[in-house]
Amino acid sequence: MNIIIKNNYEEVSQVAADFLLNTVKDKKNAVLGLPTGSTPIGMYEKVVEEHKKGNVSFKDIKTFNLDEYVNLDRDNINSYYYFMNSNLFSHIDIDKNNIHIPNGMADDVEKECMEYEEKLQSSGSMDILFLGIGINGHIGFNEPGESFQTTTHVTHLEHNTIEANARFFDKLEDVPTTALTMGMKTILSAKKIVLIATGENKANAVNEMVNGKVTPKMPASVLQLHNDVTIIIDNLAASKLN
Ligand code: GLP
Question: What is the helix, strand, coil percentage profile of the chain, to 5?
Answer without folding.
Answer: 40, 20, 45
